[in-house]
Design brief:
The protein has about 650 residues and is an alpha/beta fold. About 45% of the residues lie in helices and about 10% in strands. The protein contains 21 helices and 16 strands. The strands form 4 sheets. It has an 8-stranded mixed sheet with strand order 5-4-6-1-7-10-2-11, sandwiched between helices. It has a 4-stranded antiparallel sheet with strand order 13-14-15-16, with helices on one face. The protein has a two-stranded parallel ribbon with strand order 3-12. Helix 2 packs parallel to helix 9.
Length: about 650
């Protein structure tokens, strides 16, 4: 405690943080690809001054209680408690972020920090379902090292060298803090293979900065024209099954891990290049149900019910067509606040893992602790094993008075890392034992065959579950007349580009998913080989049923003669990226980490050769960057102006 108080009393602590914060802002403003104009530097610095003045005022007020000035004892004690609490919280945040950096090669960003706070209970469950012992241990280690360093410097060694010990200790903490805060400000990047600020001056000549004015955006928008769905008489059940982390190349594996779905593709509309809109589920999932790109806000997209620009879901369309509607999910839809756009009035029956009364998916080593948390409703809830989810879907169908007009959305999660095998499930792909630490995204690279086999086994059993569900629909007389959709919400990585799983950079293994649409009997059967966005999947379903799209859908039918030439993608998870696919070219523009990548997907399908630095491709790169810039600006401008989203449909690209 004395160490903490002595550091807190020293003004050097704040002065170092203030100075480094100003330097940090200069470096960010100069180096950021999005902020190149000189006045941004001044504004960035000035924007921090009021914040630091407030912090300084609160800090000094608290210290008055510690310093023994003439204030009542209660203020003095309160000052001590508040100051120590602030210091310890700050130290823990720094330690956790540095522990995460040692584990993953990157610090916690501001958006990730806020996302974690908003999804705290679900995050604890998610982290406990994978092995987080390394990061927890590293966090404790950083704290222990900090305390030990402070004790040594303030103790005998410090007196021996006659150092201004509290100032030096505060300086070390300040440097650690500001490097971390630089990343938390969502501009800088530090990684195991990238030196600090290595990208500061790399891509200035290829920046996204031009933008469009409000009037220019308005010119490309179409006035809203809502269709009257009461005029349509549709009697085809629609079932959409979203499968977690289902890559597009599964049918290329021999033996095939999804034999039923491979056979079903021969009787369906099969997409060879279907692209998820994002690399992480809270963006990718809702893009399907709402047929909208996830880029709607400059920070992380929020899904609060009160947002006036929410738009219409596919559930609302079918509800207005007179259908019964349901959404049944194996996951906790509070993740990413998705529940606010899924548990909505147009969904007659909503069910996710928090509604489930049986056991939820946990790892064996965590079971006892997790069961306690679940029983106390603290970290509710894990994921339902998909067998139970599909049984609940069957029960809902059984409850319907008529089975010729219902819309059912299902979300299956057994294929989410660490990949669940149902009780009695088959495991043909071996070796697949997880007898090693398995932190999400950063499991041991030498265990790739084990992890991938476990993944394939999970999908093999999901394929069986979907086959059995199709058999059930056939026995009920539903199968022939229904539209049956299977779509992966994202793909899954196995260190093709430095990390495992999904949620980070938007490479092909994460963004291309297995996707099929089985039409009603007699409907079109074809293979669509051009790039298609996930926002186009449900517009294609409506096209099959001759039903017009709602005004807020951005997708277009894959069967339409009017096709898009560019598919856009965006992530704000472990990486903040913008990108596009204009076949055969793919552009990735990274803000965290700062990067610029250009790939020719026909010549280089595994994205091993970045062509962005080549002068030969500079004209093409400028054209694609300008296209991406127009998309970003149009999206953000539309959702930021009430006069636009109330009167006009979202931008169509």
């Amino acid at each position: 405690m004395n160490i903490i108080l002595r550091v807190l009393r020293n003004n050097t602590f704040l002065l170092i943080l203030l100075g480094l914060s100003v330097i940090q802002q200069i470096m960010i403003a100069v180096g950021s690809p999005l902020d190149q104009q000189p006045h941004i530097i001044i504004l960035s610095i000035l924007s921090r001054v009021p914040v630091w003045l407030v912090v300084l005022g609160i800090y000094r007020l608290c210290l008055r209680g510690i310093s023994g000035s003439k204030v009542p004892g209660i203020i003095k004690n309160a000052g001590i408690v508040v100051s120590v609490a602030i210091f310890l919280c700050f130290l823990y945040l720094i330690a956790f972020s540095w522990g995460f950096f040692i584990q993953s090669g990157m610090f916690i960003s501001k958006d990730l920090l806020l996302f974690g706070l908003k999804n705290f209970t679900q995050l604890q469950m998610h982290l406990m379902q994978t092995s987080m012992i390394q990061i927890i241990s590293l966090t404790i280690g950083v704290i222990a090292l900090s305390v030990a360093t402070g004790w040594i410097m303030i103790g005998k060694a410090g007196r021996l060298f006659r150092l201004n010990i509290p100032a030096v200790a505060a300086g070390i903490l300040g440097v650690m803090a500001c490097v971390m805060l630089n990343y938390i400000d969502n501009q800088g990047f530090v990684g195991k293979t990238d030196p600090v600020y290595s990208f500061l001056f790399t891509y200035k000549e290829h920046s996204i900065s031009s933008g469009l004015s409000l009037d220019q955006v308005k010119e490309i928008l179409q006035p809203k024209q809502e269709p009257d769905y009461s005029a349509y008489n549709v009697k085809n059940p629609v079932i959409v099954i979203m499968v977690e982390s289902m890559r597009s190349d599964l049918t290329d594996i021999d033996p095939c891990p999804i034999p039923f779905m491979k056979r079903l593709a021969e009787k369906s509309i099969f997409f060879t290049k279907p692209y998820a809109t994002s690399s992480h589920s809270d963006y990718a999932d809702l893009s399907v149900w709402y047929s909208q790109y996830p880029l709607r806000q400059r920070r992380r997209t929020s899904y609060k019910e009160s947002l006036q620009w929410r738009g219409d879901s596919i559930f609302k369309v079918f509800k207005e067509l007179g259908y019964s509607t349901a959404y049944i999910s194996s996951q906790n839809e509070k993740w990413g606040e998705m529940i606010y756009w899924l548990d909505v009035p147009e969904v007659d029956y909503f069910f996710d893992s928090e509604d489930y009364k049986g056991p939820t998916w946990v790892n064996k080593q965590d079971e006892s602790g997790l069961q306690v948390l679940i029983s106390k409703r603290i970290a509710t809830a894990g994921k339902i094993e998909d067998t139970a989810t599909l049984n609940i879907a069957k029960q809902w169908i059984e409850s319907l008075e008529a089975t010729d007009s219902f819309f059912l959305g299902i979300n299956l999660q057994n294929s989410h890392f660490p990949y669940v095998i149902p009780k009695g499930g088959e495991e043909p792909f071996q070796p697949a034992d997880f007898d090693f630490p398995t932190p999400y995204m950063f499991w041991p690279k030498d265990k790739i065959p084990y992890v991938k086999n476990r993944y394939l086994n999970a999908l093999y059993n999901i394929d069986i579950l979907i086959r059995d569900f199709a058999v059930y629909l056939n026995k009920k007389g539903i199968w022939d007349n229904c539209v049956f959709v299977v779509v992966g919400d994202s793909g899954e990585a196995f260190y093709e580009h430095g990390t495992g799983n999904h949620g980070a950079a938007m490479y092909e293994e994460v963004m291309k998913t297995y996707t099929i649409i089985k039409p009603p009997k007699g409907g079109p059967v074809e293979t669509i080989s051009r790039p298609v966005s996930h926002i186009d999947i449900l517009p294609t379903v409506l096209d099959l049923l001759d039903v017009p799209l709602p005004a807020t859908f951005q997708g277009i039918s894959a069967l339409s003669t009017d096709q898009r030439d560019t598919v856009y993608i965006h992530s704000n998870g472990m990486a903040r990226q913008y990108g596009l696919i204009r076949w055969p070219w793919k552009l990735l523009y990274g803000v965290i980490p700062q990067s610029l990548e250009l790939y020719h997907l026909e010549d280089d399908p595994k994205e091993n050769n970045n062509l962005a630095p080549s002068k030969l491709h500079a004209p093409l790169l400028d054209t694609l960057l300008d296209t991406l810039d127009r998309w970003i600006t149009s999206q953000l401008t539309y959702y930021e102006h009430k006069e636009l989203y109330e009167k006009y449909s979202p931008p169509s690209f």
